[in-house]
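Note to self: keep these together.
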Amino acid sequence: MEAIEASATLKFGRISPQKTRLVADLIRGKKADDAVKILSFTQKKGARVLLKILKSAIANAEVKNVEDTELLDVSRVWVGQGPVTRRYKPRARGRADVLRRPTSHITVVVKEDIEAKEEAAVKLAELEAKKARKKAAKKKAAGKKPKAAASKGGKEEKKKEDAADKGKAEAKDKKAGTKTNKEPKAKAKTSKPEKDK
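Structure:
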């Protein structure tokens, strides 16, 4: 698998190459996201120019179907010398001073980090496997619950039936027992006066 590269170039940027190289050294070899943060907090004109170019390079990488822009590295940054325009400023006694206006050609290349991409793919696969296991466990639990509920319901019905049978048996016993119980009570009444005598 080859790493995808994307670049952005600014030609004839109206800034000195020497000043721009100072800022370019800050982001060379860094992650693209980190480089954006560094440039956004660097208070130099070169930082503003490089930030625009870097964002353009990241956008170009997205066009080239990079899966995740967080996996991009700033692989190369170079600042070339452009043409120097000369302007003249009149001075005393008919003389003139030369004002040099340097320009720069700035190029930023971002490249996909394959190792980080593979690690991210492995992590993603692990997460998906974990989710699949959880879903399978939930399905198993959901499949067991209705059976358990049915068995509980069956047990409850059996208990109710047994209770009803017991209740009928007790009712029969009570009817039969009331007749037999009356006789011992009568005997007990007759026996009490005997004890008193």
